[in-house]
Each structure stands twice: as C-alpha cells, then as structure tokens.
Amino acid sequence: MGKSILIINGPNLNMLGTRQPEVYGSDTLADIEAACVARGKALDLTIDFRQTNDEGEMVDWIQAARTDHDGIVINAAAYTHTSVAVLDALLAVEMPVIEVHLSNIHQRDEFRQHSYVAKAATGMICGLGAQGYSLALEALASRLGTNGGSTA
Ligand code: CA2
C-alpha cells in the first residue's frame, strides 16, 4: 500500500499567485496542490496537502503525523525563521522531513537566511519555485521505498 505524505504550508501561502510573482512565482497554492497530487499518484504516495496561518495548528499537525503519515514536506513560511515550537515538534516526529521554500532564502533578507526547520529536516530544497514540492516528494518516495521513487 502507498505511503502517506503530509504537506504543510505556513502563513500567507494561501495568498500565492495574487502578489509578488517575481519572488514566489505565479502558481496558486491550489495549482501546487494539484501538481503534488499528480506527482504523488505517479510515486504511489497519498498526499494530504494543508495550509495554516496558525503556529499552534501547525504544531498539532506535526504531532499527529506520527500516527497518521509516513513523511512530511514542510514550507513553514515565516515560522521557518521564528518557531522553536515547530522545530521541537519536527525533532520529535521521527520520520523523514523535507523542507521546501519557493524562493532562495539565502539570497534574501538576512533574517530569512536562518531556518529553525533545517535543524530537523532530512533535506532542504529552496529557490526552485513550485517544482521544489515535486522534488521533495521524489526524495521521500526514494527514502520510503515506494514504487516509482528514484534512487538518486
Ligand atoms: O520562499 C518561501 O517559500 C518562503 O517560505 C515564503 C514565506 C517567507 O516568509 C519565507 O521567508 C520564504 C512567505 C510566503 C508569503 O507568500 C505570499 C505570497 C503572495 C502574497 C503574499 C505572501
């Protein structure tokens, strides 16, 4: 049976496609979800795609993933740079975690260049726009040993 992947999107990512396309691309979050579901199908992964503007809700979702999911893709957005609570939840979850950012956070403001999430992440993809989510699913499929996952 296919593995289940939780994809978590943080604050303001519900606004994607409406402003700052030069930074974040022109895809909406619904476009990214559709691409993830399609990629997941090819990789035999079930995709649970969510967005929240609430830090506590994000922590609750990460905690629940322990029993409900096999891997996590997370774009914690602004909480990436501020949240020890999200880091602690990720450190406790004991499954592969891939951090994704649409923009290259290392080319941006200094405060965006530090990630608490990175401390708990198996790997991190940034600067490749929406494609980063699909690449994160490839990485998880490979680590979880599902059909279609490349070994790269
Ligand atoms: O590059 C990324 O994916 C970020 O996680 C996006 C976050 C930002 O705080 C991180 O530093 C990097 C912000 C997402 C806000 O997205 C908007 C999109 C359109 C309009 C307003 C906000």
Could you describe the 3D structure shown?
The structure is a single chain. This protein has helices at residues 21-24, 29-42, 55-68, 84-92, 131-144, and strands at 3-9, 45-51, 71-75, 97-101, 123-126. The chain is α/β, with parallel strands linked by helices and 152 residues long. The chain has a single domain, classed as 3-Layer(aba) Sandwich (Rossmann fold). Strands 2-1-3-4-5 form a 5-stranded parallel β-sheet, sandwiched between helices. The longest helix has 14 residues, at 29-42. The protein is globular and about 40 Å long. The site of ligand CA2 has 17 residues, from loops.
* Number of separate domains: 1
Helix content: 25-40%
- N-end to C-end Cα span: 22 Å
Q: What overall form do the CA principal axes indicate?
A: globular
CATH class: Alpha Beta
The profile of the biggest β sheet is: 5 strands, parallel
Bound molecules: ligand CA2
The main sheet orders its strands as 2-1-3-4-5
CATH topology group: Rossmann fold
CATH level 4 superfamily: Dehydroquinase, class II
DSSP summary: helix tally: 5
From the coordinates shown, what is the CATH architecture? 3-Layer(aba) Sandwich
How many strands in all?
Answer: 5
**Which stretches are low in confidence, meaning pLDDT under 50 for 5 or more residues running?**
none
Strand content: 15-25%
| Helix/strand order, N-terminal first | EHHEHEHEEH
Radius of gyration: 14 Å
Structural class: alpha/beta
Q: What is the overall pLDDT average? A: 95
